[in-house]
Design a protein that fits this description.
By secondary structure, this protein is mostly helical. It has a domain at about 120-195. It contains 6 helices and no strands. The chain is extended and about 60 Å long.
Amino acid sequence: MILDLITLALIICIFSFLFKDNPFFKFTERLLVGVSAGYGFLIIIRDGFLAKFVDPLRTGDLSVIIPGLLGLMFVFTLFRRTAFLAKYPLAFLLGTGAGMEIGPRIETSIIKQISAMGSHVSGPVEIINRTVLFISALSSLYYFLFAVRKNTKFDRFFAGTGIVFMMIAFGATFGYTVMSRISLLIDIIDSVVLRFF
């Protein structure tokens, strides 16, 4: 019950920003950032450093030395004179991450979607849906094709169509996010009110 009251008070403090910036909002904002940073740091130490580096070294597993040293090199970013050393593990991390992601991304995001567009079509409504989907994907990709100059009216119109489709997608995503947050707020307030009445 006390925890619910604290939760409700913190929610009200966060929503107090809708009126104007105030000390209650600033306190809650700093509390959230501080608790999140502290919790994240402890999780990284426990599940990352201790579990993946120190514990295997204690059991005699020497295969973790090179990955562990690469991870520890990120600490060099704290010091200006040695900050350049952190570029090596970062390059390794980005290179391996990109290499591991490119193949599956191309397969799931491009190949499977293109093959799904050509699969069995049932009725005129589905033909219209797939045509709109195809035009939206093509025009959005064309907007990001910066190597080609968009000099003609058709080029600018097609790239502008991509912008319109992207704004619709961003708006729908934002609306869904707001709706889910409001739903979560209603659920929290409802649970607190039901405990008191």
